[in-house]
Amino acid sequence: MLSPVELDVLSEEDLQLKNELELLVERLKESNDNLHRPALESLRTLIRTSTSSMTSVPKPLKFLRPHYATVTEIYEGWPESDNKLFLADILSVLAMTYEEGKRDSLKFRLKGLREDPGSWGHEYVRHLSTEIGQEYEYRQENELPSEDLMALALEIVPFFLKHNAEADAVDLLLELEAIEKLPDFVDKDTYARVCLYMVSCVNLLVPPDDVAFLRTAHTIYRKENKFTEAVSLAIRLGDYDLIREDFDAAGELDELLQKQIAFILARQQISLPIEDDKIQDILNNTHLTKHFIALAKELDVLEPKTPEDIYKSHLENIRPGFSSGSVDSARQNLASTFVNAFVNAGFGNDKLISIDDGNAWIYKNKDNGMLSAAASIGLIMLWDVDAGLAQLDKYLYSTEDYIKAGALLAIGLVNTGVRNENDPAFALLSEHIEGAASSNMRICTIVGLGMAYAGSKRADVRDLLLPLVSDTTLTMEVASLAALSLGLVFAGDCNGDITSTILQTMMERDDSQLKETWGRFMGLGLALLYLGKQDAAEVTLETLKAIEHPLSKQVAVLVEICSYAGTGNVLKVQNMLHLCNDHLDKDKEDDLFQAFAVLGVALIAMGEDIGAEMALRSFNHLMHYGEPVIRRAVPLAIGLLCASNPLLNVLETLSKYSHENDTDVAINAIFAMGLVGAGTNNARLAQMLRQLASYYHKEPNCLFMVRISQGLLHMGKGTISINPYHSDRQLMSPVGIAGLLTTLIAFTDVKMLILGRYHWFLYYLVTSMYPRFLITLDENLNSLPVTVRVGQAVDIVGQAGRPKTITGFQTHSTPVLLAHSERAELATEEYISLSHVLEGFVLLRKNPDFMEEVKD
């Protein structure tokens, strides 16, 4: 009851209401049945019409609370009748303010008249849905039937959807494990918000709910004929039958829409056999080079740059007489070869090699340096197969083995990311697999094939390379690189033949061979087959336990991190951090698996912002307390986590690590700075690297790495990114991840590989290189300049109304460049975009309803 003090506080109206309610309760106690119905009607009216502020309990509920026990007793005492059901409904509402945890609201609701729950207001419906979730869990544990709960939930879902509470509707069906019923309730007004919420939840759900959410959202998009959104989800699911189905259905509806989907698939390097030549050209990425050169003209960056333009040595403050070039000229020239290749990548011209006197530059390098110099032509001619092969032809007849080998690698580089109906890469490279004159040529052929056909899942490439993996008479180097190339070609395919062959080879090889540095690449080839496939790798992991060699533990970590790449799976991240706990004695036990575990933290967390932020914090701890092997891997992991995304705090951290006493940590940190800034032209980072160049001017290895990072920073003169995420950071390119990871694994033995004879491992980055442009095309696939707004992307999941999706925008005319966290939208309604994300190639169609403003 209310205390006398509280009674004094009540206003006259409240007192009157309180007395009225108490009178109605008294009426219910009476034995005369005729008084009950009007009393119940009055109670219902008073409860429903009461208004309250957001923070207080409605007055009728507050005043009736002391009488809750009394009314419950009255209910128990009444015989079965309509009045009793009516009273159950009222009790269900009153129970909201009474004891938590007893689920009385739901109990009385199920006994009541079952009229529309929405008529009692939004708060009541939310309360009910909470209790339904709790009750369902209780019944599942005790194996009780729950059909009545499902029926009630399906009454509540339409109410939620109608009242802008899409998230509550989705959550309720998730708790009842019935998310597949959602498409029946969604319509054209609610689908966008529902799907946006569902897709943003995927990273936070445990399997199999995450796949169920993607499939349900896909069904909703298909129902609403939103094909580009549906295809994006089918790609995330990795379901090729679903992709094909969406692609064909879009073609029946609208030919132009099918072309837009082809562009999305081409970006992900998914090839579908199709009759239409125009669409096949799009899927083959044939348009890429033409539009990339057009973009360069538009941005006025077609003019080739020399390495010196990048280094800006005159800004390095080195004392006279200590010129940074004099330390180790072959090493300097090698650095300039890579810088020249990365900076002019895709432009088809440069000032060192593709000129008439290009041979002179190649001969300025020594041995394997010549190999990398010849191969750099492939990077400069990237995506332009015809011109590239014409340029490379003369080098294939060179008398120098190294130059010939480099040219073979260049053929692979030129063909990366594009397909050609004549298949020149396979024709030119396959003949050198068996009859190669030298081991270098054979290795470059194997690596070239892996790059050229990355992600294509070509059976003929498999038949060519598999025998090299299983032949135990070959060196570990050849077998491991063949396995790695197969991993790239069949990334995320779970191919059984390749898996069994690699595992068999690992069992048959001598321990001494498995100990070699190359063993890790055989493991990586196996791991890439399971990229993003989660549980599919279980059998392989079990098999690895049977191999009694330290390599099996390394490979098991690689397989596990690849299978959960980009999923944000918290348990797997914890597993990896747990592996880093042990302080091992390097002489007695192999500790390399810990380095892979550190990379794994980044690889698993990179798909999701919160996870990525937490991973960065964990790296800080690992750097403080970890063993040397862990500390060397931390900068690499940071580079992977923030590829082409130069966040200020990350740059500061890496800058600190780049001055470490342990040169391996410093070298990896310098390279990570290049990865983090790749293709961004970030001025602050350029300044940091110039300072490092003067700091390390007497350390040839560190200086070499600084130069490489300067080349990466200005990749494609600031037009190319290596971030494997695209389409508004929703889709992960398996090939992009594979290339990045391969390069980083090479850095786990930097002295032998990158600073030794195998610096060409840096070229593996090519599979993740892609222009960060937005190019708008008309219906004939010609460039169509329109005005777009480009700004920082804003997360609008669950926000009310129509919030802005970008902030702090600038208006540009296409083609434009987009940074990692930026998003674009059309500035006018003159055209309709056929893609839901403005990124890469976007087809536009004239808006028939557009009315141009009349200018005075």
Strand order of the largest sheet: 8-5-11-10
Structural class: mainly alpha
Strand content: 5-15%
Number-wise, the strands total: 11
Mean pLDDT: 85
Helix content: 55-70%
Main beta sheet strand tally, sense and closure: 4 strands, mixed
Low-confidence stretches: 320-328
Distance between the termini: 73 Å
Overall geometry: elongated
Please tally the helical runs, counting DSSP H or I stretches of 4 or more residues. Answer: 42
Any idea what the radius of gyration is? Answer: 33 Å
Primary descriptors:
856 residues, mainly alpha, three-stranded antiparallel beta sheet, 42 helices
Structural commentary:
It comes from Gigaspora rosea. Keywords: Coiled coil, Proteasome, Repeat. Residues 797-850 form the 26S proteasome non-ATPase regulatory subunit RPN1 C-terminal domain. GO terms for molecular function: enzyme regulator activity. Belongs to the proteasome subunit S2 family. By secondary structure, the chain is mainly alpha-helical. Among the domains are: 12-218, no CATH class; 225-282, no CATH class; 565-770, Leucine-rich Repeat Variant, CATH 1.25.10; 773-846, no CATH class. It is 57% helix and 5% strand. The strands form four sheets. A four-stranded mixed β-sheet has the order 8-5-11-10, with helices on one face. Strands 7-6-9 form a three-stranded antiparallel β-sheet, with no helix packed on it. It has a two-stranded antiparallel sheet with strand order 1-4. Strand 10 (831-833) and strand 11 form a beta hairpin. Helix 34 (592-605) packs parallel to helix 36 (628-641). The chain starts with a helix and ends in a 10-residue tail after the last strand.
